[in-house]
Amino acid sequence: MNTKLWAGRFSKEADQRTNDFNSSIKFDSRMYREDIDGSIAHAVMLGTQGIIPVEDCEKIINGLKQIKEDITSGALLIDPDAEDIHTFIEQTLTARIGDAGKRLHTGRSRNDQVATDIRLTLRKECEEVMDMLRHLTDTIFNKAHENENTIMPGYTHLQRAQPITFCMQLSAYVSMLERDMGRLSDAKARMNYSPLGSGALAGTTYPINRAMTAELLGFDGVVENTLDGVSDRDFCLEIASALSILMVHLSRLCEEIILWCSWEFKFVELDDAFSTGSSIMPQKKNPDLAELIRGKSGRVFGDLMALLTAMKGLPLAYNKDMQEDKEAIFDAIDTVKMCMTALDPMIDTMRVIPENMRRAAAEGFINATDCADYLVGKGLPFRDAYKATGELVALCIKEKLTLETLPLDMYKNVCELFDEDVYKAINLETCVKNRIKK
After folding, report:
1. Which band of pLDDT confidence, cut at 50, 70 and 90, is reported for residue 6?
2. Residue 372 in contact with residue 389, Cβ under 8 Å?
3. Which of the following is catalytic: 145, 175, 262, 278?
4. Is 278 a residue of the active site?
C-alpha cells in the first residue's frame, strides 16, 4: 500500500528517516476533499478526451467519490505512514478498483496536482475567513452604534487629545477590517486560475483540455505558463500578507481593550465568560483572550516570513522547499480563525461604561482646540488664539480647574474676546457635534 510512486527508478528502499523527513501527510491530509475533487475533474476530462476508456473513467469517479465519503464519515482512516495525501488516495483507489485506478495520473504530475489542491483549499479558506470577518465587523459596528452618543477622549501619543465618541473609535476598526476583506478578496481572485495540466513543468503530450478541468473546478481560467503554474506560490504570500495585516488590526484593537478594562481607564468591562483570574490574587480579572490575540499576531507574522524565506531563492520550476508552504499558510489561517472566534463574542458581550469615558474626557482639556477655534471665530489669528488657550490651560492646572469651570473674568484676563458663549463652544457635546461630520 505504501509503495512510493517514484519507486521504479530505485534499487533499494528509502531509509525510514528519509521517509519521515520527506512525508507531508500530517499537514496535507486536510486537503483530501480538494485532492479528490481535482482528481475527479481530471478523470472526467481524460474520459471526455478519449485519453482513457470511458468505463475506467466511471470506475475512477465512483471510486473517488466513495473514498471521499468514507474519509469524511471516518470509515476510512488516512494512513499516517503514507508519503502524502495524493499518494494515499491514489493507492487506495487502485486497491479498490484495480488497474483502472492506475490510469488516473495519466497526463498529470504531483506538481500540478499539489498546486491545484492548495489553490482549491485556500479559496475555500479565504471564503471562510471573510465570512468570519464580516460577522466580526457587524459585531463591532453594532457595538459602535450602541454608543453613538458616548463621549470619550480621543488620544494621540496615548495622551488625551480631542473629544470623540466611542462609536467613532470602534468604527475606525470597522474601516480597517473592511480593507482586510478587500485584500483577501483580491488575493482570492488572483489565485483562482487552474495550474492543472501544467504537468511536472512543461505540460504534457496528451491531448488534454485544461479549460474543461478549470471550469469543472470553478476556476476563472488557466495559468498560461506551465512553469509558473507549478512554481507559483505568490497566492500563499499574498494571503499570508493579508492575514498579517489583519492580525495587526486585531492586535491593536486588543491592546486598546486591555487598556480600557484596566482600573486606570475602566472604560469597559469584559464579561466573566471571556476573562480569566489569577492563581494567587483573588481580585484579578484578566483580559487573557485579548492578550493572547495580541501575542498570536507574532505567530502569523512568522508564518509570512517563513513563506517569503522559503521562496526567495528558488529556481524554476518546482523544488521540494515548496512543501513548506502548507504548514505556514495553514497555520496562519487557523490562527486567524481561532483569534476571531474568541474576539467576536468578547466584544459582543463587552460592557461599556459611559460615565467613566465622559469623566476622562472632561478632565483632559481635550476641548482646548475648540477654545482656540472660538477665538479664531472672533477674529483672532490662530497662532495668537493657540497661545492664549495654552495660557488658559496652564492657569486651570494651577487653580485646579477645567476650562468648563474657569470663571469668565479669568478668561477675559487672558483675552478680552472671550464672552459667555465660550462655555457653549467648549461643551464636549458641542465639540463632538461640530467636529464629526457624516
Report:
1. very low
2. yes
3. 278
4. yes
Contact status, residue 197 vs residue 266, Cβ threshold 8 Å: no
pTM, two decimal places? 0.91
14: its cell numbers: 528509502
Here the contacts of 267-271 (C-beta below 8 Å, separation 24 or greater) are: 267/152, 267/166, 267/352, 267/353, 267/356, 267/357, 267/360, 268/350, 268/351, 268/352, 268/353, 269/350, 269/351, 269/353, 270/346, 270/349, 270/350, 270/351, 271/346, 271/349, 271/350, 271/351
Q: Which one of 11, 73, 157, 279 is the catalytic residue?
A: 157
pLDDT in tens, 276-309: 988 888 888 999 999 999 999 999 999 999 999 9
Instruction: Assess whether pLDDT exceeds 60 at residue 162.
Output: yes
* Helix (H), strand (E) at residue 307: helix 288-311
Triad 345, 159, 367: Cα angle to 5°: 100
The reply to whether 277 and 404 lie within a common domain is no
If asked whether residues 13 and 28 sit together in one domain, one would say yes
Domain ranges, residue 397: 365-435
Q: How confident is the model at residue 7 (pLDDT cuts 50, 70, 90)?
A: low
Phi, psi of 60 (to 5 degrees): -60, -45
Distance CA(81)–CA(213), nearest Å, equals 30
Domain boundary pick from 46, 72, 106:
106
Of 26 and 113, the structure prediction assigns the larger pLDDT to: 113
C-beta neighbour count of 298 within 10 angstroms: 12
pLDDT band at 379 (very low <50, low <70, confident <90, very high): very high
Chain CA centroid to CA 427, Å: 40
Q: Which of 340, 358, 376 is the last residue of a domain?
A: 358
In the DSSP assignment, the letter for residue 265 is: T
Average pLDDT, the chain: 94
Residue 1 located in a structural domain = no
End-to-end Cα distance, the chain: 66
Active site residue 157: yes
Distance CA 108, CA 216 (A): 16
